[in-house]
Amino acid sequence: MQFETRLWSFTQGVRGRIAISVLIGMIAAALGVIRLALLGWLIGLIFLGQSVDELVMPIIFAALVMLIRGIFEHWRTMTAHETSAIVQKQLRRRLFDKIVSLGPGYTGRQRSGELVLTLVDGIEQLETYFGEYLPQLFISALTPLMIFAFVAFLDFPVALILLVAAFVALAAPSAWHKFDTKRSLERQQAYAAFASDFLDGIQGLATLKSFGQSGSRTELLKKRSFELFRSTMWVLATNSLSRGITDTSIAVGAAAGLGYGAYRTMAGEMELTTLLIILMMGVEIFRPLRDLRTVLHQGMVGLSAAQGVYKILDAQPVVLEEHSGNSTTRLEPSIDFDSVSFSYPEHSHIVHKCLNFNISKGERVGIVGSSGCGKSSIVKLLLRFHDPGQGSISIGGKDLRNITLDQLRREISVVHQDTFLFHGTIEENIRMGNPEASETEITDAARNANIHEFVTTLPDRYKTIIGEKGIKLSGGQRQRIAIARAVLKRYANFNFR
Ligand SMILES: Nc1ncnc2c1ncn2[C@@H]1O[C@H](COP(=O)(O)OP(=O)(O)OP(=O)(O)O)[C@@H](O)[C@H]1O
Ligand SMILES: [Mg+2]
Questions:
Q1: Cα(first)–Cα(last) distance of the chain, in Å?
Q2: What is the CATH number of domain 5-314?
Q3: Is 270 helix (H, G, I), strand (E, B) or coil?
Q4: Measured between alpha carbons, how far is 102 from 316 in angstroms, rounded to an integer?
Q5: Averaged over 452-479, what is the pLDDT?
Q6: What was the pLDDT predicted at 432?
Q7: Which of 217, 288, 430, 434 could be stapled to 492 by a disulfide with Cβ–Cβ 3.0 to 4.6 Å?
């Protein structure tokens, strides 16, 4: 029995659905008990030498109960899938919002493969946990009680033996929980390392090929996949141990209950029909536990994936937004760096020490310097992807810390060194500068960036798709589209034309 209170907290809003799943499962289990009680009774009647005519009704009853049970099982499965789909959707949204709020200062320090793994694969792996494992856990805890109540009517001591065995089977594996969690964490780390290096390999395929390094990359991936295999086997091994405990408890419990029942029948303290009914129900009392066992592995894999989710949710933003509100007043376009000192988080290298400069409205300033001297870092500080360790930066005389991140970033246009264009049309990429821009504004921005002429030569013009299935652009063309995007943003804010 592994129950994580933190994962449970993600089920807010769907707990009613989980309760319904449990209820449906309990009804299905009750129908299973009735079915087996009917079968036990039927066999008892056969032993007592009843005629075929008298057996027709019990047979019809048993068949009907089996059919209804099938319908409930189907309903349970459908509810399970819907429930997990809702939790997964909410979780994806929460993670995405968190990553956006953490900003590039955080994502820049993470490996893309690991982030993608958590956001896509990790959430997928939680499906079984929320949809099947959790409801099954409750069902496994409640069903033995229900069956105990039923069997206790027939024979109290046997009911007690079965109940104790069911709870031992349910609770004993939790003794291994710490061990399980450690193994899950190791597997998650191994998976993240594999995914990150794999993504690196795909993205850098051209480089690997041109430098003849695909072989060494293959070796690295081989090592990573072996680590993943080994940690997965450990997770499986600890699961098998839990399964072993569950199975043993089930087997010993059933044997003890039935052995004692048989003894009591021999001693004339219990009827044969009662023993047969208990024999049949012995199967059902442990069924939820066996069902739980079948989803246990996926539940554990889900728990391991959850470690990646926690890592993102627990991350602290590199910059804190202390200032709230939504000011629409424009800032005076002047920049002041006052005794700014800055190092990247977790790096001792000082990028800027006591940097002072100011740029007034209307001034055009170029900053030049050797590679790595900190030019791009100035832009990152200006956009507040990071805060300076000492000193202050202001725009229009206002300290950046007293401006909301939204307002600050609305006022600044950037063409990054490494141009990033999204998969989509040229127009969509330029429009990111100002989603409300008219077509004329977009073409004007493109003219300013000296890309309009080129776009008009394309068959689909501004509707041309960039990316895998679309047009391949040269580095310069990509750069100019990025300039058009920046121009459009500035055009809208400052009316600079
Ligand atoms: N995300 C980061 N984390 C840690 N250190 C960084 C990070 N980005 C840059 N640096 C370091 O900060 C210093 C300044 O980098 P920056 O990118 O600002 O240089 P630059 O002047 O723009 O160089 P270039 O002309 O090559 O673009 C360099 O020593 C670089 O190694
Ligand atoms: Mg740079």
A1: 68
A2: 1.20.1560.10
A3: coil
A4: 7
A5: 89
A6: 92
A7: 434
Q: In angstroms, rounded to a whole number, what is the distance separating the alpha carbons of residues 250 and 239?
A: 16
Going from the Cα of 109 to the center of ligand 1, the distance in angstroms, rounded, reads 13
Share the mean pLDDT of the chain. 86
Distance from residue 399's CA to the centre of ligand 1 (Å): 24
311 close to ligand 1 (CB < 6 Angstrom): no
Spans of all domains in the chain: 5-314, 335-410, 424-494
d(CA 486, CA 430): 8
Average pLDDT over residues 81-94: 90
Which atom of ligand 1 is nearest to 108's Cα?
Answer: 1
Ligand number nearest CA of 373 is: 1
Q: Is the CB of 417 under 6 A from ligand 1?
A: yes
pTM over 0.70: yes
Q: What is the mean pLDDT of residues 253-276?
A: 86
Q: Is the CB of 110 under 6 A from ligand 1?
A: no
Cα–Cα distance measured from residue 40 to residue 277, given in angstroms and rounded to the nearest whole number: 4
Q: What is the mean pLDDT of residues 63-88?
A: 90
349 lines ligand 1 (CB under 6 A): yes
Read off the pLDDT band of 12 (50, 70, 90).
confident
Is residue 494 predicted with pLDDT exceeding 50? no
Max mean pLDDT among 123-127, 418-422, 478-482 falls in 478-482
Q: Is 430 in the pocket of ligand 1 (CB under 6 A)?
A: no
Instruction: Tell the CATH superfamily of the 424-494 domain.
Output: P-loop containing nucleotide triphosphate hydrolases (3.40.50.300)
Domain 5-314 and domain 335-410, same fold? Reply is no
Given this structure, which CATH class describes domain 335-410? Answer: alpha beta
pLDDT of 112? 77
Predicted confidence (pLDDT) per residue in 91-130, tens digit:
999 999 998 888 887 877 777 778 888 888 888 888 888 8
pLDDT value of position 269:
86
Q: Rounded to the nearest whole angstrom, what is the distance from the C-alpha of residue 416 to the centroid of ligand 2? A: 8
The DSSP code sequence of 458-488 is: STTGGG-EESTTSBPPPHHHHHHHHHHHHHH
- State how far the alpha carbon of 320 is from the alpha carbons of 101, 104, 387, 404, in Å: 10, 13, 9, 10
pLDDT at 490: 72
Distances (CA, A) of 209 to 87, 112, 217, 474: 42, 22, 10, 20
Compute, in angstroms, the gap from residue 370 CA to the centroid of ligand 2: 10
How far does the centroid of ligand 1 lie from the alpha carbon of residue 380, in Å?
10
Measured from the CA of 377, which atom of ligand 1 is nearest?
A: 18
